[in-house]
């Protein structure tokens, strides 16, 4: 069973040119100084300490936002829907029918 890390943090990161920044979400409680990581949306990002201006100007990644919203809405239903197991025979009739 795969568990998804529910804690995340946001960090403005530069694109490959270094001129354009976006605020992406990353798994964990906080940025620990690592040089790179993969964002929630699956983008490989170079990481550096952002300035206050970077925080202000960097738009939030819509893909990270949508994925986190979807995960949060699934929080209440962590169990898979119940289906008939191989041990249970499916008679094809509803309970109570004869």
Question: How would you characterize the overall build of this protein?
Answer:
The protein is an alpha+beta fold and 98 residues long. The chain has helices at residues 52-57, 62-73; strands spanning 8-14, 21-27, 36-38, 44-46. The relative contact order is 0.17.
Helix and strand succession?
EEEEHH
Morphology call: globular
Strand order of the largest sheet: 1-2
DSSP helix fraction: 10-25%
Biggest sheet overview = 2 strands, antiparallel
Separate helix tally: 2
Mean pLDDT: 78
Low-confidence stretches: 77-98
Distance between the first and last residues' Cα: 39 Å
Cα-atom Rg, whole angstroms? Answer: 21 Å
Name the quaternary structure: single chain
Percent strand equals 15-25%
Structural class category: alpha+beta
> How many E-type strands?
4
Concise account of the structure shown:
The protein has 98 residues and is of the alpha+beta class. The protein has helices spanning 52-57, 62-73; strands at residues 8-14, 21-27, 36-38, 44-46.
Q: Main attributes?
A:
98 residues; alpha+beta; two-stranded antiparallel ribbon; 2 helices; disordered C terminus
List the SSEs and their pairings:
Elements: E1 8-14, E2 21-27, E3 36-38, E4 44-46, H1 52-57, H2 62-73
Antiparallel strand pairs: 1-2, 3-4
């Amino acid at each position: 069973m795969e568990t998804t890390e529910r804690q995340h943090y946001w960090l403005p990161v530069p694109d490959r040119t270094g001129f354009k920044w976006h605020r992406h979400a990353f798994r964990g409680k906080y940025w620990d100084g690592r040089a790179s990581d993969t964002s929630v949306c699956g983008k490989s990002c170079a990481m550096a300490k952002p300035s206050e201006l970077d925080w202000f100007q960097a738009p939030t990644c819509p893909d990270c936002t949508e994925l986190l919203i979807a995960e949060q809405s699934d929080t209440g239903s962590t169990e898979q829907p119940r289906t008939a197991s191989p041990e249970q025979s499916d008679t094809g009739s509803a309970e109570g029918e004869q």
